[in-house]
Structure formats: C-alpha cells, structure tokens
Write a structure and sequence with these properties.
This protein is mainly alpha-helical and about 130 residues long. It has 3 helices and 2 strands. It has a two-stranded antiparallel ribbon with strand order 1-2. The C terminus is likely disordered.
Amino acid sequence: MQAPQHNPQHIQALQKMKAEVDAITRKIGELEAQRDEHSLVIKAISGLEAERRCYRMVGGVLVERSVGEVLPVLTTNRDNTTALIENLDKLLAEKNQAMGEFAKKHGIIGQQPKEEAPAQAKPEKAAGQGVLV
C-alpha cells in the first residue's frame, strides 16, 4: 500500500473548489424551491379574475395588488429564476470538471463523485415546502 504525500496547498485548493461546488449546489436548490413556489402561486391564481384582490410580499412588506398586476410579475420572476438555474447548472458542471481535472493532475484521488451526490440531493428536499395562497 502506498500513501502518497500530497502538497497541502493542492489539498487546500481542492477543498476550496469543493466548497464552491457545494455553495453553487445549495444556491441551485434554493432557486429551485423559489421557482416551484412561484409556479404553485401562478397555478393557484391564474384562473382568478384580473381585478381580484391579492397580497404580495415585497421586501418584507405585505402589499395589496390585483391578480392582473401580480401574475405577470410572478411569471417573469419564475422565468428569470429558471434561466438563472440553467446558468448555475452550467457553472456547476464546469466547476466539477475543473475539480476533477485538478485532482487528476495533482494525483489527489478521493471520493469526490460519491460526496457530490448526497450534497445535491439535500437542497431538493426543501423544494417540497408549501405556499399559502
């Protein structure tokens, strides 16, 4: 059995890359939950009359609006969130590839892929949160 000595700077750089990947994964999970909540609200209010009163949280303040005012804003927010998730997915793939190449280049063989799967599964559990309409 060989126990290769790795440069501590390389190990630290790899750990930093892993932390970045974990942060991106958490952010993707948060944004997916937000997108799902927007979709639920859109689905709930899309059949209502445009003049009907509804309430929306803006900057921590509950404001009264009409369904006709809120629905386009929610749709735009959901679409923008979806685009951001797609961009972060691409960035995540790039970071994972760079991390794998770095580990391979410096001979740091770990359990990176096995650790990533549970980290990506955790944020998705938060996506099931309910929204009151």
